[in-house]
Design a protein that fits this description.
Distance between the termini: 62 Å
Number of helices: 20
Number of strands: 34
Bound molecules: zinc ion
Strand content: 25-35%
Helix content: 25-40%
Structural class: alpha+beta
Length: 647
């Protein structure tokens, strides 16, 4: 008998040679129907593999990442089977699972695969899946493996076999298809119920540009048709919400080849949005005891030599800027921290001056390869909502809690309800990799964990993920489509205070070194705006909307009343525009809808005679005619709603 320890810690005894599927059946038949694979002592294996020793054991279903990956990798075999059936003579490279779905690299000789062939392959896959063919594992000698693929004429598999050790090679077969694979796989093809080929791309064999270019076929499969439908809907929705597309349509930002790649140009409406965000955070920061500072966009090489950034990033960053003076070199600012260290050093500091919190919306420049650039999320110039807190070691916990408060305040105000955090600590086995005193690390790490706990933040702790100069806390948010984004970060730093020889006089009259905390709730304004656009689909909360309203006169007869009305709204800090065009009202309404204007105020004869407005609200439709004051109150209540919610 062997002992099998389940994830809940319970231990069951089974005869030696029991399989994962046997164990599943002994628990419940319903469970067994959903088992895709098993995890034995941390290793994912076929559910049909015999277990011969005491083991930690877990059943894997569609709900486990490893289960999904096994499902998708097995689907790659199914797709290969379908392709081979339809296009005999196709040669196969590798077919791994990826984050969503899987691909297979294939060589079809002269035939080029296009999306017109997809339907045929999908249908064949479904047909083969319905046969519920088992994935059968066969250990095979190297000689036999070579013989099989020599006969088949697949030089790719032969090259893969060449790199394998005799005795470690396995074949897997399902239906009429046999593949070289170490596994694991799902029990049979019947689990695969919904199939979709996504696209094809060129891919060099083994990623080597000097070798043959193969066709990479991307696809995704699901155990239920409904799940595939939902996934495709999500993809459509993501496309519709793409911030690059909406940014253009809503006239928020643009790029110009002449200005340079990855250097966003903020258009008037985008600037309005950005300035609202800045203003909101600036106000919150002043309340939280931050002091705003401004520092230049370039700095002398010396600053970055001192900070260590020159040694670390000098090669990858932009080239130096030279002045006519000999040996004078400047760099574009890649980060604000060194400048802030110099502000700290402007005068002697005492323990009573700490914490010192310096905040700057600091624009920084970092070289990114052109292929890496992506809308506002990967750019070469961006503005961090940066701040550096210089504090005593005993203040780290309190400061951390305050920063968490601020970050959560920002998330709530902007409608990100679903957030979590990752605590990155040092690797306890490798303490020498990190700088700073042991006791300071222990104190800071404990402080981060405790403050996250006190603030009720859902966290995961990762050992060995800290920077060499300090532990950190990274915030992730889930957007409306369930996608995860990394946003703000809080990071403890023992290195820069040391490099810049920062000091304060303690109550003991001795010199001490402060701790530095870097933090940025948004991360960068560019990235944050991108996420905000995709999360809201461009339907910003009223207080952030670049244009909150559009006044739409039915004809030019009501221009005067429209102007008068608009002035009154402006006096109440409401912003927008009057649509003066000589267009039909229906057209004006449609255009305002496309621009996602929150309120449309339609004015005609009745409205102007009675001093009223007819209000249409985005997403709600016609609210009817009301006095101007009533509309102003309605709009202001909505603006205050966000702020009131966070108290
Ligand atoms: Zn496989
Ligand atoms: Zn910093």
């Amino acid at each position: 008998m062997i002992k099998i320890t389940l994830p809940d810690g319970s231990v069951r005894e089974y005869a030696q040679g029991v399989t994962g599927m046997d164990i599943a059946l002994s628990i419940s038949e319903g469970l067994a129907r959903n088992v895709l694979a098993a995890k034995v002592n941390g290793k994912v294996v076929d559910a049909s593999l015999p277990i011969n020793e005491d083991s930690d054991f877990q059943l894997l279903t569609w709900n486990d990442t490893d289960g999904k990956q096994t499902f998708w990798h097995s689907s790659a075999h199914l797709m290969a089977e379908a392709i081979e059936a339809l296009y005999p003579g196709t040669k196969f490279g590798i077919g791994p699972a990826i984050e969503t779905g899987f691909y297979y690299d294939i060589d079809m000789g002269d035939k080029t695969l296009s999306s017109e062939d997809f339907k045929k392959i999908e249908d064949k896959m479904v047909e083969l899946a319905r046969q519920k063919n088992e994935y059968q594992r066969t250990p095979i000698s190297k000689a036999e493996a070579i013989e099989y693929f020599t006969e088949k004429g697949d030089e790719y598999k032969l090259e893969l076999i060449d790199g394998l050790e005799d005795g470690s090679i396995t074949f897997y077969s399902q239906g009429n298809f046999t593949d070289l694979c170490r596994g694991p796989h799902i029990p049979n093809t019947g689990f695969i119920k919904a199939v979709k080929l996504m696209n094809v791309a060129g891919a060099y064999w083994r990623g080597d540009v000097s070798r043959k270019q193969m066709t990479r076929v991307y696809a995704v499969t699901f155990p239920k048709q409904k799940e595939l439908d939902e996934y495709l809907h999500l993809l459509e929705e993501a496309k519709r919400r793409d911030h690059r597309k909406l940014g253009k349509e809503l006239e928020l930002f643009a790029f110009s080849e002449k200005v340079g790649m990855g250097l966003p140009l903020w258009l008037p409406k985008g600037t309005m949005l950005r300035e609202r965000l800045e203003g909101f955070l600036r106000k919150a920061q002043v309340r939280a005891g931050y002091s705003p500072v401004v520092t230049p966009h370039i700095a002398s090489k010396e600053l970055y030599v001192t900070s260590g950034h020159y040694a670390k990033y000098g090669q990858d960053s932009f080239q130096p800027i030279r002045t006519p003076d000999e040996d004078e070199e400047f760099f574009l600012k890649p980060m604000n921290c060194p400048h802030h260290c110099e502000i700290y050093k402007v005068k002697p500091r005492s323990y009573r001056d700490l914490p010192l919190r310096l905040a700057e919306f600091g624009t920084v420049y970092r070289y990114e390869q052109s292929g890496e650039l992506h809308g506002l999320t990967r750019v070469r110039g961006f503005t961090q909502d940066d701040a550096h807190i210089f504090c005593r070691p005993d203040q780290v916990e309190e400061e951390f809690m305050k920063v968490i408060d601020l970050v959560l305040y920002v998330f709530k105000a902007l409608g990100f309800e679903n957030y979590s955090a990752q605590v990155s600590l040092r690797d306890p086995e490798n303490k020498e990799k990190y700088i700073g005193r042991d006791e300071d690390w222990e104190r800071a790490e404990a402080a981060i964990i405790r403050s996250a706990e006190i603030k009720g933040l859902p966290t995961v702790v990762e050992l060995g993920e800290a920077a060499f100069y300090g532990p950190k806390l990274d915030f992730m948010v889930k957007d409306a489509l369930g996608r995860k984004w990394q946003l703000g970060t809080i990071q403890v730093d023992y290195q820069l205070p040391q490099r810049f020889e920062l000091e304060y006089t303690g109550s003991d009259n001795q010199k001490h070194r402060p701790v530095m905390i870097h933090r940025a709730p948004f991360g960068s304004l560019e990235r944050f705006v991108a996420i905000l656009i995709e999360n809201t689909a461009g339907n910003f909360p009223l207080w952030l909307s670049p244009d909150q309203l559009a006044v739409l006169p039915i004809s030019e007869k009501y221009e005067d009343y429209a102007n008068e009305l608009f002035l009154r709204l402006q006096e109440q800090d409401l912003r927008g525009y009057i649509d003066h065009r000589d267009e039909k009202i229906g057209r004006k309404i449609r255009d305002a809808e496309v621009s996602k204007i929150p309120f449309m105020l339609i004015v005609g004869e009745k409205e102007s005679a009675e001093g009223k407005v007819s209000v249409r609200k985005k997403g709600e439709g016609d609210l009817g005619m009301m006095p101007i004051e009533e509309f102003i109150q309605l709009a202001q209540e909505e603006i205050n709603k966000n702020i009131a919610r966070i108290g």
